[in-house]
Amino acid sequence: MLILLVLACAAMGIPLLALWGDGRRGAALFIGLNTLTLLAILALAIQVLRDGAFTAGGGQFMVDDLSIVLVLVDGVVGLSTAWFSRNYMLHEKAHWLLSRRRVRLYHAMFQTFLATMLLALLTNNMGILWVAMEGATLSTVLLVSLFRTAEGLEAAWKYFILCGVGLAMALFGTILLYFAAQKVLGHGADALLWTHLAAVRRQLQPQVMAIAFIFMLVGYGTKIGLTPLNNWLPDAHASGPSSVSAVLSGLLLNVALYAVLRAKVLVDGALGPDFAGRLLMGFGLLSLLVAAFSMLRQRDVKRLFAYSSIEHMGLATFAFGIGAPLASFAGLLHVISHSLTKSSVFFSVGQAVQSVGSREIQRIRGLLEFSPFLGWALMLAVLFILGMPPSGLFLSEFLIITSTLQAQPWLTPLLLLGLGVAFAGIFPRLQGMVFGPAPEGIARQPVAGIIPVFIQLALVIVLGVFIPWILVQWMQHAALLLHG
Amino acid sequence: MTISAQGLAWGIPLLRLLAALLLLLAFAMLAQRRLLTLIHLLAWQGVVLATGTALVALLTGQTELWFSAALTLGLKAILIPTVLHRLLRRLQVRGDVEAVLNIPLTLLAGIALVIFAFSLAAPITALTGIVTRGMVGIALAAVLLAFLMMITRRKAISQVVGFLAIDNGLFFAATSATLGMPMIVELGVALDALIGFVILGVFFFQIRETFDSMDLQNLEHIREE
Amino acid sequence: MTAILLELAQVLLVAFLAPLFAGLLRALRSILQNRRPAGCWQSYRDLYRLFHKESLQAEGTSWLFRFAPYGIFGAFCLAAGIIPILATGLPLAPAADVIALVGLFALARVFQVLAAMDTGTPFATLGAHREMLIAGLAEPALLATLFTASLLSRSTSLSVIVAHLEQLHFALHPSMVFAAAAFFMVLLAENARIPVDNPATHLELTMIHEAMLLEYSGRHLALMEWGAQIKLVLYVAIGIALFLPWGIVPTAEIAVLPLTLPILLLKFAAAALILALVETLLAKLRLFRAPEFMATAFLLGVIGLLGFFMLGA
Fold first, then answer.
1. pLDDT, tens digit, 9 for 90 and up, residues C272-291
2. In Å, how far from its chain's centre is CA B115?
3. 3-class DSSP state of B215
4. Which helix (H) or strand (E) segment is B51 a member of?
5. Tell me: the pLDDT tens digits for B42-71?
6. A388-406, pLDDT tens digit by residue?
7. A222 and A229 in contact (C-beta within 8 Å)?
8. What is the pLDDT of residue A331?
9. Do A154 and B220 touch (CB under 8 A)?
10. Contact at CB, C175 and B24, closer than 8 angstroms
């Protein structure tokens, strides 16, 4: 019941925002809706805590330990983005002369995106999961091209075509999955339900499942930003509004990875853990390295952090590929911490870019001097994203390296190399952006917009220092679930 | 799924013929230079798809597939090509003969892709019954050919046609290779395709407005660094 | 004995009906293009006229130039004997291997090209080069088509293929659909029809086939033209044998021939109509596009082959 409530809360917002989503009223409505959704999610979390995993709607919806963690992150990041977006969009609206219609479109599409993300996490049907992912892509395409600049159009077009083709591959994988499933489960709507599939996963045809998984990995992997299909990601992050960049990195990539993980559980049953695990490790490591080296030559601050997202998702994919429960636990922790931290980074970067009026790293200077609040927010968020100690990312990276040493010791140097290069790519730039004298003619922004940064960073510290036992329990269960 | 012996006798060869036609149309698209003909070919692909779905509905007696077939016919064979046709006229795309890669070479690459698709689908084919034999391979080949078409084209409209052709291939896989996906999934897929198409239509006007051309070479400016 | 008679009858029938087919085709084209046709018998009149004219030999040409018309005509007449047109299992059927048949056509082409180059005139040489370009691309396509059919019947003997295909009655073979499309394209290209070549052109620069005949006159030209007409009929006959074989009877059941003969003639007439339609509807391709056309034919043939392996039919 609560699952449906969560989805209803999110979906209800789409028509409301489409009708009244302009101006301050729209922003307030947007925040209100996301507060409501978060409350519903918390209620759902309490129920999961009490009853464990359960399904609803005739088996079509499902929540378990893996999805509830991500749903919670979704709710938190959704709300803080809504909060951040209020001030951010007021400024952008003035700067770009956005019409009321365009702002309505922005809010409605944003809400659509959040709703489809929740649907993807809460559905039990692998087909609906695909539909939700595609819906999320379509809604974000419009968000990326919101400003209708040549650059935005190019980014959105690339995003649409690449992800559209990628998702077509994922659909083919889903069709093959159904093809394998109907031999065991029979023809009909139930043959794509994940819980049913997981129950019979050992009986699924291995050859078909192997091909199905490859297609799903390529398809959803495009959305995760795995190399070599990551071209769209930096462009889309850079050209869209910063609020959109925050949710792209913070939510969309996670959910795509979630889809791959669901498929991995099934294919592991049919083929044993090595097949999917090696693929994930390979693609993850490759993405990590490529993204890390790409960071060195970025001049655009949003592109820089977009590459950082690829790097982190690569690392998480790698962790899930190792397959040991500890590694999966670390991967999950990494994904959660990354969501919270990276969205904070984009909030603060977004405001910095608005103040300076340029995305070039060279021109963002001395943030601490003209706005200490913003400067600290950016510095802390970026230090955390680099895996500095009190953050959850430190813990997760530490755990990932430890389990790599156990499972595949010879890969550890490569992993460390990637992390080191990423550090070298970001850290020197951070110094320039934060310290030093501020240039002339900077428009100071209201600090209220980046309050969520500190809340989220506090959560990340909690994740790094003392993880609440509830979360530990969920993540342990999820890790075991992924382990098979 | 049970199919009567009578259905096996004439239905399956007909379904195979439709599969072959789908592949043929995919190749025709690859070889086609004129945008208008490209849209016509897309419409024909939609017709083949709808016929195939209707045939599967008839053979297996699933009533919901009739609905799916009608939807396919309305959407893929009539509505989308008509709209594309109108768009082409309203946007006044200049010189509808498009510069493409050397066509014989593209076609040879297409053959290679088909062989690749068939060999990839071979283990699946080995497992399937007489009914759906080879369908997965053909659907995959159609998808990959449409993909190749997207890569070798420059104009936005032909890329969209490629995109829709990919969708057609997938739909064929869903209906003919698995004899019908669950209805709710099919509906969702169709809805996404429709919304995606509408968004692309919006895009056309934006691209046209911003660049004064439909050539995608204009969309190659974002560089690294 | 009846078999040998039948064999002879087939060769004579093809040889003497070929001008009629060409005339019919021309007449149909005229009608479709709103012109007044010269009548179906015009080809016979042309040939008759040419046979009564003096045949001149171009200066500096060798024996090859004189011999080529006979060689070509002979090759096509032999081919007319081995293709099952009226019946399968003819005395020459053991020779009717598809590869041998393609070789026989290639032999005729080699004669033609060599004779054209023998004259040493620029246009003939140009035509020869172009002919080889088209042929080099058409041959693999033709072979791919024929192989599809032989895969289906597990034999490369044309007679066996036709006998097998005929027994299948009406069955849809996707691979044969592709093969048929490919074969039709090859037929157009090999017989110098639109869109690859224009048989009615008078513009030397665009000629392919006609350019090679420029130096010929009288009896030699008549044989060349007649040979070309037979070639067209042979291609149509192969097409009918492979894709619409119903009505071609085994030699043993020769008694039903009077029944099947009208059907056969009807099929030829239909083929003439289709060819006339295609030639009216299509425009001639630029020469540089011809490789594209042939690549498409080859591709279709290969898809037919692949389709056979994939779909098993």
1. 999 999 988 888 888 878 88
2. 19
3. strand
4. helix B35-60
5. 999 999 999 998 988 888 888 888 888 898
6. 888 999 999 999 999 999 9
7. yes
8. 94
9. yes
10. no
Higher pLDDT, C167 or A9: A9
Residue C203's identity, in one-letter code, is L
**What pTM, to 2 d.p., does this model score?**
0.86
Provide the pairing of β-strand A61-63 with A54-56.
antiparallel
Helix (H) or strand (E) holding C126: helix C122-153
Q: What is the DSSP letter of A445?
A: P
**Interface residue ranges in chain C relative to chain B, Cβ cutoff 8 Å:** 171-175, 177-178, 181, 291-292, 295-296, 299-300, 302-303, 306-307, 309-313
Contact C261, C221 (CB under 8 A): no
Residue of B113, A201, B118 whose CA lies nearest to B126: B118
A463 is written with which tokens? 């994740």
Residue B193 vs residues A63, A123, B154, B168: alpha-carbon distances, Å: 28, 20, 22, 10
Question: Which of A130, A148, A157 to probe by mutation at the B interface, max B CB count within 10 Å?
Answer: A157
**B181 contacts in chain A (CB < 8 Å):** 127, 175, 178, 192
The two tokens of residue A26 are 């729209």
Region B174-203 average pLDDT:
78
Say whether pLDDT at C171 is over 70.
no
Q: Do B20 and C312 touch (CB under 8 A)?
A: no
Distance from B135 to chain C by nearest Cα, in Å?
8
Which runs of consecutive H residues, i.e. helices, occur in C52-97? 63-82
Amino acid identity, position B92: Q
Q: Are strands C249-250 and C87-88 parallel, antiparallel or unpaired?
A: parallel
ipTM for the predicted complex:
0.90
Rounded CA-CA distance A472/A474 in Å is 5
Both tokens assigned to A73: 């992150």
CB contact under 8 A, A207 and B127: yes
Q: Which residues contact B95 (CB under 8 A, 6 or more apart)?
A: none
One-letter identity of residue C288: F
CA angle A238, A242, A248 (to 5 degrees): 75
Is the minimum CB–CB distance between B137 and chain C shorter than 8 Å?
A: yes
* Contact assessment for residue B222 and residue A154, using Cβ atoms and an 8 Å cutoff: yes
pLDDT at B212 over 80: no
Mutation target vs C (from B37, B107, B131; most C CBs, 10 A cutoff): B107
- Residue A320: per-residue pLDDT: 94
